[in-house]
Amino acid sequence: SGIYKENVRFLSRAVGNLLLDYLAYITPLRQLFLRQQKPKALISPYLWSRLDGTVWPDSILSSCLVKACTRAQVPRLYIANWHHFSVAICKEKFSKKEQTDFNGLDDQENNEPGENEQDL
Questions:
Q1: pTM for the full predicted model
Q2: Which of 34, 56, 74, 76 could link 48 by a cystine bridge, Cβ 3.0 to 4.6 Å?
């Protein structure tokens, strides 16, 4: 179309730190509480999962992202953006040795139908 579209691939430091704190402190605490109720139960390692541990389908995550972006009056985010955020957090917060596990993840995008660099 020739019209420039914003390519939103950032997560503010404050939000990144908040997300990291959630993963580092809240998730283990949730696991502790779950184990008190069900001794051998494991909490899902996924941030976006149901109580039974199943991962949200892409359609639900997409719907939530659309609603949140509309409410915040910011450009729409896609699942690929979420993927970039998580890789960026890992690269920022983990040591070089741990980062080797994430090398190449930027190239492995789960694009939604119709979602590509030109659409962003």
A1: 0.47
A2: 56
